[in-house]
Amino acid sequence: MAPTVAGSLLPLSVIVLATVASTVLLAPVAVKDIDALLALKSGLHDPNGALKSWDPQLVNPCTWFYITCDDNNRVTRM
Questions:
Q1: C-beta separation of 77 from 61 below 8 A
Q2: pLDDT tens per residue, the chain (78 residues)?
Q3: Which side of the chain, N or C, has fewer Cβ within a 10 Å radius?
Q4: Domains defined for the chain, CATH in brackets
Q5: 50: alpha, beta or left, given left = phi > 0 and alpha = psi -120 to 50?
C-alpha cells in the first residue's frame, strides 16, 4: 500500500509541534538568562572569540560554550 500524503506529513508535524512547544515554554526564562549573559559578555574583552557561540539568535543559552544549565534549562554555572 502506498503511503498517503497525510501519513507522510505526520512525523514532520510532530517534529514542528514539539519544536514550537519547546520554544514557547522555554522562551520567557531563556530570554532573562540570555539578556544577563549578553550583558556580561559585552563587558568582557574576548580577543580569542571564546564566547563566539553566545548567539542571541539561539533560543536556548544552554547550547552555548561554557554554560551549564539545570533540568529546567536555567543557567546555573559559567
A1: no
A2: 555 555 555 665 556 555 555 555 555 666 788 899 999 999 999 999 999 999 988 878 999 999 999 998 899 999
A3: N
A4: 5-77 (3.80.10.10)
A5: alpha
State the Rg of the chain over Cα.
17
User: Minimal CA–CA distance to 61: which of 49, 74, 42?
Assistant: 74
Helix (H, G, I), strand (E, B) or coil at 77: strand
Q: Residue 30, class by beta-carbon neighbours within 10 Å (0-12 exposed, 13-18 middle, 19+ buried)?
A: buried
Q: Where are the beta strands (DSSP E) in 1-78?
A: 68-69, 75-77
Work out the end-to-end distance of the chain between its first and last CA atoms, rounded to an integer number of angstroms. Answer: 54
C-alpha span between 61 and 18 (Å, rounded): 18
